[in-house]
C-alpha cells in the first residue's frame, strides 16, 4: 500500500510528476534544494511554464496532498527526478543523482521502492545507485530499486505523464514489478517491464534516434546551400515515399534530452558509437552555420543591429537549457561591430542570462531579424506591421515557421532558400 511518495527534484519533470501522484490521492512530499521554489510551491504557485500545471498544483496543495520541502521525509516510495547534465568533456554528470540518493538513503527502509527517473548512462542503477544503498545496509533484495525514464514533451507533460507508455526496469524482477505497479496507479498507457540497464538504454536511444535524424536534415541543408537546392522541397518530396520520414532542419538541437543523452552512450562505447558522435558534431555545428549566414546577409553594413527572436530550444515554452540560440548569441557577441537586441515572449528577464527587450524594442532600427525559436507569436510576423520599424526589412527564419505574403515587402530567408542570400 502506497500512502506517501517522496519526489526529489521539483523541476520540469519532478513537479508535474508530484502533482499527478498527489491528484490521485497519494500524499506527496516534493523536495528541492531551492528554498525559493519550495516556498512558491507551498503557496500553490509554480516556477515553470507548463499548460494546466498552475491550476493542478494550486488544487493539490490546497487539498494538502502536495507539500514541498528542502529535506526528504520517510515515505513508502522515492522518486529521483533531478538533472543529469554533461561535463565539459561530454561525460555524464550524475552528481545530482548521487546526492539525491545519499540524502534519502538513511530514510529508506526494507520493502521501500526507489526509482530514478533522471536520464542516466547504462548501468548507472547497478554500478552507481545500488552501492549507495548497500553502504547503509540495504541490498538489492531489501529494497525495490528501478529506473523509469521520463519521456514527455514540454507543453504536453500533464497529458503524456498519464497517457504515454512507460518503460520500467528494476534491478531485480521483484523491483520491476513493484515499481511498475506504482506507475499503474496513475498511468493509463502501457507500463512495460524490463531490467534496469535495458530501460536506461531505451531512453537514450529514443532521443539519439531523433538527434541522428535531425543531423541528417541539417546536413542536407548545408549540402543544399552548396548545390543551390531548396532543402524543403527535397524533404517534402522524399517524404512522399511510404517508408521515408525525413525530419526538419533547424539552428541546432537543444533541451535536456536530445542535446545531452547521446553523449551518455558515446561515453560508454566510444569506439562503437561513431554515427552517434558524428550526428552530435553536425548538430553542434549548426549555430556556427546560422551565424555564417547572418554575417553573409549583413556583410555590407558597417555596424548592423540584429534582432534575435527566441532563445528557448523549442516553441511556446520557457526552457532554454542547451538551446542553440545561446550559442548563436555567444558567437555574435564576439563580433565587435554587431549590436544584438534579444526578445523572447516566454522567458522572464530575471531568469535569462542576458537582457531581454520587448518585440518592438528589439526590432526598432534593426537591419536583420533572426527567428531561433518557433513561438506562436512569431508565425504571423511577416504579415504584421511590427517589422515596419526595421532599418532593413529582412528576416532569417531558421525554424521555417513564416510564410511570404504577396503584400509583404519583407525579404524572407530560411533554410529552404539560403543559397539565394544577397547582402543587404
What is the topology?
Blueprint: E1 4-8, H1 14-23, E2 27-31, H2 35-42, H3 53-62, E3 66-69, E4 77-80, H4 95-104, E5 113-116, H5 124-134, E6 144-147, H6 157-163, E7 166-170, H7 173-183, E8 191-195, H8 196-227, H9 231-238, H10 261-268, H11 274-297, E9 305-309, H12 324-333, E10 339-343, H13 359-363, E11 368-371, E12 394-397, E13 411-414
- Helix count equals 13
Strand content: 5-15%
For the record, what CATH class of the largest domain applies? Alpha Beta
- Helix percentage: 25-40%
Shape: globular
Radius of gyration: 23 Å
The largest pleated sheet is described as: 8 strands, mixed
Instruction: Average the pLDDT over all residues and give the rounded result.
Output: 95
**Total domains:** 2
Enumerate the strands of the largest sheet in spatial order, edge to edge or round the barrel.
3-2-1-4-5-6-7-8
Total E-strand runs: 13
Distance between the termini: 68 Å
Query: What do we call the CATH topology of the largest domain?
Result: Rossmann fold
What does this molecule look like?
It is a single chain. This protein has 424 residues and is α/β, with parallel strands linked by helices. It has two domains: 200 residues, 3-Layer(aba) Sandwich (Rossmann fold); 134 residues, Rossmann fold (3-Layer(aba) Sandwich). 36% of the residues lie in helices and 14% in strands. It has 13 helices and 13 strands. An eight-stranded mixed β-sheet has the order 3-2-1-4-5-6-7-8, sandwiched between helices. Strands 10-9-11-12-13 form a five-stranded parallel β-sheet. Helix 7 links the parallel strand 7 and strand 8.
Amino acid at each position: 500500500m502506497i500512502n506517501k511518495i517522496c519526489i526529489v527534484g521539483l523541476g520540469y519533470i519532478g513537479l508535474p510528476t508530484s502533482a499527478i501522484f498527489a491528484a490521485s490521492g497519494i500524499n506527496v512530499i516534493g523536495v528541492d534544494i531551492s528554498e525559493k521554489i519550495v516556498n512558491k510551491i507551498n503557496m500553490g504557485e509554480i516556477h515553470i511554464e507548463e499548460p494546466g500545471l498552475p491550476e493542478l498544483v494550486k488544487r493539490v496543495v490546497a487539498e494538502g496532498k502536495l507539500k514541498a520541502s528542502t529535506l526528504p521525509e520517510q515515505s513508502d516510495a522515492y522518486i529521483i527526478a533531478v538533472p543529469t547534465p554533461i561535463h565539459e568533456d561530454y561525460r555524464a554528470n550524475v552528481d545530482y543523482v548521487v546526492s539525491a540518493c545519499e540524502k534519502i538513503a538513511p530514510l529508506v527502509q526494507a520493502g521501500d521502492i526507489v526509482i530514478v527517473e533522471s536520464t542516466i548512462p547504462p548501468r548507472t542503477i547497478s554500478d552507481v545507485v545500488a552501492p549507495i544503498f548497500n553502504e547503509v545496509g540495504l541490498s538489492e533484495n531489501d529494497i525495490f530499486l528501478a529506473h523509469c525514464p521520463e519521456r514527455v514533451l514540454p507543453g504536453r507533460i500533464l497529458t503524456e505523464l498519464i497517457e504515454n507508455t512507460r518503460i520500467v526496469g528494476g534491478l531485480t524482477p521483484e523491483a520491476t514489478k513493484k515499481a511498475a505497479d506504482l506507475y499503474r496507479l496513475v498511468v493509463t498507457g502501457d507500463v512495460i517491464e524490463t531490467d534496469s540497464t535495458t530501460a536506461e538504454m531505451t531512453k537514450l536511444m529514443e532521443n539519439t534516434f531523433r538527434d541522428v535524424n535531425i543531423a541528417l536534415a541539417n546536413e542536407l541543408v548545408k549540402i543544399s546551400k552548396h548545390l543551390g537546392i531548396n532543402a524543403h522541397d527535397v524533404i517534402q518530396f522524399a517524404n512522399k515515399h511510404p517508408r521515408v520520414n525525413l525530419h526538419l532542419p533547424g539552428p541546432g538541437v537543444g533541451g535536456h534530452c536530445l542535446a545531452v543523452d547521446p553523449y551518455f552512450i558515446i561515453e560508454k562505447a566510444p569506439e562503437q558509437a561513431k554515427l552517434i558522435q558524428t550526428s552530435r558534431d553536425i548538430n553542434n555545428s549548426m549555430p556556427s552555420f546560422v551565424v555564417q549566414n547572418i554575417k553573409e546577409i549583413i556583410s555590407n553594413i558597417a555596424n548592423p543591429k540584429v534582432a534575435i527572436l527566441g532563445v528557448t530550444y523549442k516553441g511556446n515554452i520557457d526552457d532554454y537549457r542547451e538551446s542553440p540560440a545561446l550559442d548563436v548569441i555567444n558567437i555574435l557577441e564576439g563580433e565587435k561591430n554587431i549590436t544584438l537586441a534579444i526578445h523572447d515572449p516566454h522567458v522572464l528577464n530575471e531568469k535569462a542570462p542576458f537582457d531581454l527587450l520587448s518585440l518592438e524594442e528589439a526590432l526598432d532600427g534593426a537591419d536583420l531579424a533572426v527567428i531561433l525559436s518557433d513561438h506562436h507569436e512569431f508565425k504571423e510576423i511577416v504579415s504584421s506591421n511590427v517589422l515596419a520599424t526595421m532599418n532593413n526589412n529582412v528576416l532569417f527564419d531558421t525554424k521555417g515557421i513564416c510564410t511570404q505574403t504577396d503584400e509583404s515587402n519583407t525579404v524572407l530567408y530560411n533554410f529552404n532558400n539560403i543559397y539565394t542570400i544577397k547582402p543587404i
